[in-house]
Write a structure and sequence with these properties.
The protein has about 200 residues and is of the alpha/beta class. It has one domain (about 1-135, about 155-190): Bacterial phosphonate metabolism protein PhnH (Rossmann fold, 3-Layer(aba) Sandwich). The chain contains 5 helices and 10 strands.
Amino acid sequence: MLNIVTHLPGFRDPIHDAQRTFRALLDVNARPGTTDQITADMSVPLGLTPACGAACLTLLDLDVVVWLQPSFAEQVRAWLLFHTGCRFTQYPEEADFALIQDVAALPELSIFNWGTAEKPEASTTLLVQVESFEMGQTVMLTGPGISDKCVITPILPRHFWDFWVQNHQAYPQGVDVFLFTENAVMGLPRTAKAEKYQ
């Protein structure tokens, strides 16, 4: 079964799809709270959205260590290994990237690597799949890359935003987050300050 799954194609146009996906990731990271479409033409295993799958094929390689939330099917691990050659870890604090499909099931987001004062860039980047960028808790973002303020409503558990306050206060340490729906991405770099509306 795994041999069949690993032969699912990745990018149909590897160079241009990777370039367009990387540009989208850069843009939303530079402008926190904004969204961009990821248009890569590809097939992904069940449980992985096309947008998140495209980001994985763009960001992961032989030198990258990945933590997969245990709820992901084994086919996702096999697909990532086949297309990127990345390594996997059972320990969140060792991961360069973490793939999460159910953030509500994580007891603490602080289990990931926040980097150090000397190497803040060594922290984990979280790739989080969400159902929608609308209908969730209303949150106001401020900070670099935001001209005044940006109001967002992605579907995330309330404890995510409690964690985000701690994450922002730890700057320059802390994690960066990309949120993915089926075909779009939103950036939440650690520089973004979030305030919840009651």
